[in-house]
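re: ur question from the group chat, yeah i did fold both. here u go
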Amino acid sequence: MDDIQGKHVDLSIDKPDQLYRFAHALASPVRIRIMQALGSRSMNVGELAETLDIPMSTTALAVKTLEEAGIITTETQPGARGAMKLCSRRLDSLSIQLEPEQDESNVLAQTIPLGGYSQAEGIMPTCGLASQGTIIGEMDAPGVFYSPERFQAQLLWFRQGALEYHFTFPHMDQMEIDWLEMSFEACSEAPMYRDPWKSDIAVAINGRRLGVWTCPCDCGGRRGRLTPGWWPALSTQFGFLKTWRVSREGTYLDGVRLSGVTIGDLQLGQEMFIRARIEVPADALNVGGINLFGESFGDYPQAIVVRAGYHLKPNAQQTTKNLE
């Protein structure tokens, strides 16, 4: 569906048709149970029916409804008794905006390469980088994080430490930023992969910590949808797509309020660039490392995506063509 980005969807009362589609699809105990069953792995319709102990016809109809809403995806594959429909979760989260939105912001977006960080601080093994085709440099050597080849990275990992990305938007001095959003795919870092394996992953903007996400595991057990074939099957395969959003009301993680840090607290515009820091702090309760995925590793075809909603300052010249 065109209105779904990554594994999260924002629903609004301003788009009632979209809101009704999702509400209808989820307004069924059977369909909710199917979503729960698909949380751990993909299944075909027969496996779902057996797992939930419901008729095949009921399962097939529920799958069709969820697929039409864009909540799950299906893929037809050959089976022992003809073709079978393999079902996978399309979404992990959704949020609903019940207040009408004020259309006051234009939106800018850009992608930061995984290896495009400006600083790598306190990196501790296990650690390393990989491109789409090979390991970059030496494994468990923190110095490799400053190798020029880091810009080719499609996967990077470390047990403890921080990466700081510096970025800017054109004509930032003429903007008033209303909200800022950053999304990336990540999971914990353990030898090979491990579930459970908690890790506290913090994000900060301009030195102000937005909050901490506790990742439940280092994800494996199946190959990541984009993970190249040369990468070992027993190593980390995929992560969770997480979206951090700072607005005038506070900070939200995947649509759920995380902290009271607002866009005003970030003092955007004080420098020529914005500093975004992704960290596994040394004093965290769960120091379980991090894997960060690029557009050619894991499950999601993206690196680090930043978006900003803005309006022009009252005295700024209209430079819409340059800003878009």
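okk and heres the other one u asked abt
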Amino acid sequence: MSLKVVPTTPTLGATVTGIDLANVAAGDIEAVNAAIVEHKVLFFEDQHLDPEAQLSFARQLGEIDVAPFGPKHPDFGEMTVLDQVAPKDQGADAWHTDNTYLPCPPSFTILQSVKLPELGGDTCFADMYAAFDALSFELQAFLCELTATHDLTKTLKRAIADGNADVDLASMQQQWPPVHHPVVRVHPDTGRKALFVNGNFTTKIDGLTSTESEAFLSMLLEHVGSPAFQCRHRWRVGTLTMWDNRCVQHYAVPDYTTRRVMHRLTIAGTQPTGPAA
């Protein structure tokens, strides 16, 4: 059976069939890389990979980027385990890109569903190419000259308070101080421009007054969640989803009250560059 890619929406997302991620060949990896560049988010149904197999697949896409904080799998320290029953305000229910407080944020996230609530627990994805393209030419030009500050403090404080991180805040702040990324990122593979600010880690737009920064950042964070840029995924146990953090944001819908367990891996990325670089 050959690999088949069926788009989910005109904007982003595709369901991929005809591939066993536990037994991939070099040609399969090339096809997956081509599909993720085109569709930005890929949904692989009925994979049911154990942690070792998920890691094996991920390593064929690049170096594993171990998240500095968050609960890890007891046998596979590279893997973050998202195990929640009360997800409201725990961080994933806001439009965000994973770990942009790092100097080199991850390129891809690979997330597999292990246990799901009877209802709810969907994930929404938003296309940041489309979000940038929808802005006026004048605003695009203005934003292309700017950088923004990304900081782990707010999200890590919440994770510690919720018992989802067993680390010292001060030492983590020292190890991972705030970084500055372009507000508009140029994708290294496509050359396309994507908005690169998010609600979890972007704290201010550099060079603006506090009032100006708050106004522009609030506008952009509201803008990225427009339904025109989105697709919504309803999980099934054994679904593996892969997305490109360089041009996609995601939002985990916090509408469930029974257990949801996901296994997450991220692939190392490069330092973001903007049009002004």
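fwiw on the second one: The chain has a mean pLDDT of 93. DSSP finds seven helices and 15 strands in the chain. idk if thats what u expected
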